[in-house]
């Protein structure tokens, strides 16, 4: 789906002496697109 936009959210949280990072990637048009993206990131 050319031109489809997704949203990547970055959350930082203090954790002890460091920082916890949480990335959330949302807005995929369907589960198939999401799953293909997940597999390509490995």
Question: Can you give keywords for this protein?
Answer:
2 strands, 43% strand, 42 residues, alpha+beta, two-stranded antiparallel sheet
Structural commentary:
- By secondary structure, this protein is α+β, with helices and mostly antiparallel strands.
- It is 24% helix and 43% strand.
- Strands 1-2 form a two-stranded antiparallel sheet.
- A hairpin with a 2-residue loop joins strand 1 and strand 2.
- The model has no long low-confidence stretch (mean pLDDT 88).
- InterPro entries: START-like_dom_sf (IPR023393).
Short précis:
The protein has about 40 residues and is α+β, with helices and mostly antiparallel strands. The protein has one helix spanning about 30-40; strands spanning about 5-15, 20-25.
The chain-level structural class is alpha+beta
Instruction: Outline the biggest β-sheet.
Output: 2 strands, antiparallel
User: What is the count of DSSP helices, taking H or I runs of 4+ residues?
Assistant: 1
Distance between the termini: 21 Å
Number of strands: 2
Beta-strand level of the residues, as a percent range?
35-45%
Major β-sheet strand ordering: 1-2
Oligomer: single chain
- The mean pLDDT is 88
Topology order in helix (H) and strand (E) letters:
EEH
Broad shape: elongated
Percent range of helical residues: 10-25%
Low-confidence regions: none
Radius of gyration, whole Å? 14 Å
